[in-house]
Design goal:
By secondary structure, this protein is an all-beta fold. The protein has no helices and eleven strands. Strands 2, 4, 5, 6, 9, 10 and 11 form a seven-stranded mixed beta sheet that branches. A four-stranded antiparallel beta sheet has the order 1-3-8-7, with no helix packed on it. Strand 9 (91-99) and strand 10 (105-107) form a beta hairpin.
C-alpha cells in the first residue's frame, strides 16, 4: 500500500524560505509521479507543481520562479523549496503520489505553511 508523508511546514515572514519534504513508500510500479498541492482556508485545493521520473517539472503560474520541486529518486523523497514567500502562499500543503499516466492519487496528511506580512 502506497504511503506518503510530508514534513517541513511552519511559520515564516514574507520574503522568507521554507523547504518541504515528502517521502513515498510501498509502491511497486516503476513510473511514480509526485507533486505538491495546497489548500487555503475557504478555497479549493490547487496544484503547486509536479515532477516525473525524468525530473520534468511543471509549476503553477503563481509560484513559478519562487518554488522549486526536486526529488531524490534513490530515497523516494520529494522536495519543495519555497522562496520569496508571500502571505497568499499560506495554506495546507499536500504531497501526492500516483502512477504516471493514471489519475488516482495517494495523499499525505498535509503540512501547514503560514506566511505573515
Amino acid at each position: 500500500q502506497v504511503q506518503v508523508v510530508e514534513s517541513g511546514g511552519g511559520a515564516v515572514q514574507a520574503g522568507g524560505s521554507l523547504r518541504l519534504s515528502c517521502a513515498a513508500s510501498g509502491y511497486t510500479y516503476n513510473e511514480l509521479c509526485m507533486g505538491w498541492f495546497r489548500q487555503a482556508p475557504g478555497k479549493e485545493r490547487e496544484g503547486v507543481g509536479s515532477i516525473d521520473r525524468d525530473d520534468m517539472t511543471t509549476y503553477a503560474d503563481s509560484v513559478k520562479g519562487r518554488f522549486t520541486i526536486s526529488q531524490d529518486n534513490a530515497k523516494n523523497i520529494l522536495y519543495l523549496q519555497m522562496s520569496s514567500l508571500k502571505p497568499e502562499d499560506t495554506a495546507m500543503y499536500y504531497c501526492a503520489a500516483w502512477r504516471c499516466g493514471f489519475s488516482s492519487k495517494v495523499w499525505g496528511q498535509g503540512t501547514q505553511v503560514t506566511v505573515s506580512s
